[in-house]
């Protein structure tokens, strides 16, 4: 499935293209149709799954179809950091639309409060707010939420842990009774269930079970430039005692090139991809399972489904497009209670993607220094904004943001 299948407003699709999002993540596939159908939603999903865009995209699509005179959507978030992060995603996704947003959070000085107040009275379509500061603005009369259509509670479990229950209930007393409610939470303890009973009307439920890599997999990564990858792989394969290895690459052209390079170095390997006929595939698999073929180079075609016991090493020649694919790829090793190693090559372009994977598995993967013979690779900066995704000039189009 691609984002085009949702038929979003062209201005929104343009934002998606610019951000480089092509395929919806599992939570997006499930949540977007529900939000578009104007239903209430309770979703269990963690950071890293793409949960933010799973509500922002359908809401922006809806706002784009309507007149934009009033505050349309309120997103409540537990912390200033999350509020800013959500607001930044809105800026990216909504860049080509006419929607405006503001992040409203406490902790600043009196000046930022006044700036927020001014922006709020000027009018904005989406408010992303931490509960305490929003109440200050509500009681001062700076915000009129009478025409609000959508309420989102993001990281609801954390908001309750931080003692925001009463604030949330109070904020809701300012909202029109008829509205769409979306609740996102990383966990579903009973207090979230009772909050949802109070706020949501006949909600649809979405649950994204987070797959976790098996405990037996030793995960490692190298930071490399593209032209260092083949040499590094040859070294790993020649110097090691790995008996059964899968090397993953995202494109079949890379798989073919890589396989030839390994063969030239005397490493016996086979390329496995969608161009092979059934007989060749079966022949390769029989040899790989029987351990007469040590190295299999393949696309994600082999990341799901093949169940070969005793694979000692998985190498990700590039970072897979989504965290689920990473889990599937590395899950080829350490099957049936055995142990195994998974090594990922991260070039500069893939660092953000790998950061998302680490967020989803809830762990930092060890970065090993490159062997001495190979020159130093790039430094790891997964948070650095890619030039393609963020252009500082984008801000011009938006109303002035306090403190940001
Ligand atoms: P979240 O779980 O909302 O915190 O999102 C985690 C990261 O994934 C953010 O940096 C998003 O920009 C990114 N992201 C969200 N959806 C997609 C997608 N469909 N394709 C690629 N990246 C995405």
Tell me what you see in this structure.
- The chain has helices spanning 10-19, 26-36, 51-65, 80-93, 110-122, 131-140, 156-161, 165-172, 190-199, 229-239, 252-264, 278-289, 323-330, 351-361, and strands at 41-44, 73-76, 101-104, 126-129, 150-153, 180-185, 204-207, 217-223, 245-248, 269-272, 295-298, 313-316, 340-346, 366-367.
- The protein has 404 residues and is of the alpha/beta class.
- The protein has two domains: 3-207, Rossmann fold, CATH 3.40.50; 217-374, P-loop containing nucleotide triphosphate hydrolases (Rossmann fold).
- Strands 3-4-2-5-6-1-7 form a seven-stranded parallel β-sheet, sandwiched between helices. The protein has a seven-stranded parallel β-sheet with strand order 10-11-9-12-13-8-14, with helices on both faces.
- β3, α5 (110-122) and β4 (126-129) form a beta-alpha-beta unit.
- It is elongated.
- The two termini are 35 Å apart.
- Residues 386-404 have low confidence and may be disordered.
- Bound molecules: adenosine monophosphate.
- The site of adenosine monophosphate has 13 residues, from α3.
Task: Give a concise summary.
The chain has 404 residues and is α/β, with parallel strands linked by helices.
Q: Enumerate the strands of the largest sheet in spatial order, edge to edge or round the barrel.
A: 3-4-2-5-6-1-7
Low-confidence stretches: 386-404
Compute the average pLDDT.
88
| Rg | 24 Å
Shape: elongated
What summary fits the major beta sheet? 7 strands, parallel
CATH class of the largest domain: Alpha Beta
CATH topology of the largest domain: Rossmann fold
Could you tell me how far the N terminus lies from the C terminus, measured between alpha carbons in angstroms?
Answer: 35 Å
How many strands in all? 14
Which CATH architecture of the largest domain would you pick?
3-Layer(aba) Sandwich
Q: Compute the number of helices.
A: 14
CATH superfamily of the largest domain: P-loop containing nucleotide triphosphate hydrolases
Number of structural units classed as domains: 2
Q: Tell me the strand percentage band.
A: 15-25%
Report the structural category: alpha/beta
The helix/strand order is HHEHEHEHEHEHHEHEEHEHEHEEHEHE
